[in-house]
Design a protein that fits this description.
Residues 43-209 form the DUF4136 domain. It comes from Mesohalobacter halotolerans. This is DUF4136 domain-containing protein. InterPro entries: DUF4136 (IPR025411). The protein is of the alpha/beta class and 211 residues long. It has one domain (2-204): Double Stranded RNA Binding Domain. Helix content is 21%, strand content 21%. It has helices at 14-26, 82-98, 190-204, and strands at residues 2-5, 41-46, 57-59, 65-67, 102-103, 112-119, 140-142, 159-164, 173-182. Strands 1, 2, 3, 4, 5, 6, 7, 8 and 9 form a 9-stranded mixed β-sheet that branches. Strand 1, helix 1 and strand 2 form a beta-alpha-beta unit. Helix 2 (82-98) runs parallel beside helix 3 (190-204). It is globular and about 40 Å long. It starts with a strand and ends in a 7-residue tail after the last helix.
Length: 211
């Protein structure tokens, strides 16, 4: 498993650099890996202007959103299998609670909104914010200090987590203060996949700013 954090990457370059970085890593195996977990990459990035050392309330949706760029974001939401979705949500919850954060309902004005999703296509060229209109609010997004809004080259089954600050909305755009990406995670046998979900989520939450 490879793990990376790019918190010092210059503003506006991060979207191009980080995704190109992932694509490059996907092609860095001269021989075919024997096990699917050898493809695992735990990537994270965050806003340098947001204080992660404070204690926050947060909300999580009931499922992990399935993203397919062939589906209209205005269609009813679809979710990945609960076998994996519940594992992802519970591991996110455990890691955030370990930071001293507290989960609340989305109706309780949480400090942060956690948006976990998984890609159902091999290549997703633009992650549309409208996929989340059903859950909290139909905002646009902006990334203070980094810009991972455009993604290209993620493998099918990649888990993508965004942490949005609903109190920092400017011009109807909500700041996403942290992102985590686990490349191609939802592949392989069920038992193996669940173990990889747990290990990779623990890894991404052990990287800055959470280390």
């Amino acid at each position: 498993m490879k793990h990376f954090n790019t918190s010092n990457t210059p503003i506006r370059l991060i979207g191009i650099i980080s995704m190109a970085f992932l694509i490059t890593l996907m092609g860095c195996y001269p021989d075919e890996p024997e096990y699917v977990e050898e493809y695992d990459i735990a990537y994270s990035n965050y806003s340098p202007d947001f204080s992660f050392s404070d204690s926050y309330t947060y909300s999580l949706p009931a499922g992990v959103l399935a993203i397919d760029d062939n589906r209209d974001p205005e269609d009813p939401p679809e979710f990945i299998d609960d076998v994996f979705g519940n594992t992802i949500l519970e591991r996110i919850r455990e890691n955030l609670n370990a930071e001293g954060w507290t989960e609340v309902s989305e109706d309780a004005n949480p400090d942060l909104i956690i948006l976990p999703s998984a890609f159902e296509t091999e290549f997703l060229y633009f992650y549309n914010p409208d996929y989340w209109c059903w859950y909290y609010s139909c905002w646009g997004w902006w990334y203070p200090g980094y810009f991972p809004g455009y993604v290209s080259g993620f493998k099918t089954g990649t888990v993508f987590i965004q942490m949005a600050d609903p109190n920092g909305v400017e011009n109807d755009d909500v700041p996403v203060v942290w992102v985590g990406a686990l490349n191609g995670l939802l592949q392989g046998s069920n038992n193996n996949t669940i173990g990889r979900i747990e290990r990779n989520l623990d890894q991404v939450f052990s990287q800055p700013p959470f280390d």
